[in-house]
């Protein structure tokens, strides 16, 4: 059976101030053309269909067009909700839409109820694990700790229990939206950390033939049978070197896996440039970036006048401008943003404690801080879910 694995469409998202709906429409055109050209048997969409819980109307129209075109192909599509989606909104009408071959899996309690698609070698069971927010599904899965690993582990236990009752030789595919250990993140994924631990081990998906993952925006292979398709478009400059693709997966009669990457259309290349303004404006090596979306970091010791306007004269698609002025060796002055780079909210709070009293928090105090941040985040999740 031939599968096309994609995820993280983020319909409605902009790239800095650039509207990406035309690029997202072009991706849908490419997706449909690939399904037809490659004789795909099933399409897998592993979450984050939309960029936010209440998407703009134009994004909904793109999604509606995609559903109609996939249904017209007569190729089954299995789709789950991600952490950016509203599971309830995305799942509206799932029963009716399923009759057209578009199978929306957004209910955590139904994760063990597969879409079964037969081929010449027997059945393939597709299990959809929508994004499982621990604070919301802890009781459903009867786990003591509201964290990602126990919740996803419990969901997979249900999947394996259902699979064990099916005819021998039934192959299996799981769609999941999660941060799996070993995956490489970028700047454009929304943090899903709970208790300081957001990742789950790849071994949690043991027992299935293929795990089609979503959430991380770079296409990557965590294990032979555990893969991220990545997002079809770049959504941050940290994705400058990403090759945006979908996975074309051939699932053999005994569960063998053969994988090929299918490139996605690139609306405009990305470039990160850094240096003094006058150097950036004159350097002939940068000519290749004049038609790119540009993020520029200026290193001038003194901030120059009208830097964005001057950059745009040479690089008309400059979207982001940052300043990192040169400092003499040994200069203790470091920008606040630089000090915070790579640190999460809990680490920043611990640094603040150390700053005001001279010593950092002990183990008990770190636990209090962690629980406080988890409580705040859980309250935000509950509020978002109620919208």
Automatic annotation (TrEMBL):
Positions of the Calcineurin-like phosphoesterase domain: 1-218
Taxonomic source organism: Streptomyces solicavernae
Subunit comment: Heterodimer of SbcC and SbcD.
Residue span(s) of domain Nuclease SbcCD subunit D C-terminal: 267-355
Domain of life: Bacteria
Protein known as: Nuclease SbcCD subunit D
Family, similarity comment: Belongs to the SbcD family.
CDD domains xrefs: MPP_Mre11_N (cd00840)
GO MF annotations in UniProt: exonuclease activity
């Amino acid at each position: 059976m031939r599968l096309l694995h994609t995820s993280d469409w983020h319909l409605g998202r902009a790239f800095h101030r650039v509207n990406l709906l035309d690029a997202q429409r072009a991706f849908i055109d490419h997706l449909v053309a690939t399904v037809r050209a490659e004789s795909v048997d099933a399409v897998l969409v592993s979450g984050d269909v939309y960029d936010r819980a209440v998407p703009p109307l134009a994004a909904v129209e793109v999604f509606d067009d995609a559903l109609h075109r996939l249904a017209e192909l007569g190729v089954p599509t299995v789709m789950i909700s991600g952490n950016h989606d509203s599971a309830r909104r995305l799942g509206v009408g799932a029963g009716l839409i399923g009759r057209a071959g578009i199978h929306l899996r957004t209910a955590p309690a139904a994760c063990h109820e597969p879409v079964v698609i037969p081929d010449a070698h027997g059945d393939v069971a597709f299990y959809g694990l929508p994004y499982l927010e621990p604070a919301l599904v802890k009781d459903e899965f009867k786990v003591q700790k509201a964290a990602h690993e126990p919740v996803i582990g419990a969901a997979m236990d249900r999947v394996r229990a259902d699979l064990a009752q099916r005819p021998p030789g039934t192959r299996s595919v799981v769609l999941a939206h999660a941060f799996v250990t070993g995956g490489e993140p970028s700047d454009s994924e929304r943090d899903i950390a709970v208790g300081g631990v957001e990742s789950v081990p790849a071994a949690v998906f043991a027992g299935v033939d293929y795990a089609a993952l979503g959430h991380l925006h770079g296409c990557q292979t965590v294990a032979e049978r555990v893969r991220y398709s990545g997002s079809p478009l770049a959504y941050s400059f940290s994705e400058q070197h990403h090759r945006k693709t979908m996975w074309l997966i051939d699932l053999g009669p005994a569960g063998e896996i053969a994988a090929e990457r299918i490139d996605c259309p690139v609306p405009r290349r990305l470039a990160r440039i850094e240096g003094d303004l006058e150097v950036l404006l004159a350097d002939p090596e940068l000519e290749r970036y004049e038609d790119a979306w540009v993020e520029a970091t200026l290193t001038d010791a003194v901030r120059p006048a009208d830097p964005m306007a001057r950059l745009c004269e040479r690089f008309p698609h400059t979207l982001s401008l940052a300043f990192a002025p040169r400092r003499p060796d040994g200069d203790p002055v470091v920008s606040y943003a630089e000090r915070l780079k790579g640190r999460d909210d809990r680490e920043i709070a611990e640094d603040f404690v150390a700053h005001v009293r001279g010593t950092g928090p002990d183990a008990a105090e770190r636990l209090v801080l962690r629980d406080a941040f988890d409580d705040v985040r859980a309250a935000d999740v509950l509020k978002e879910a109620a919208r």
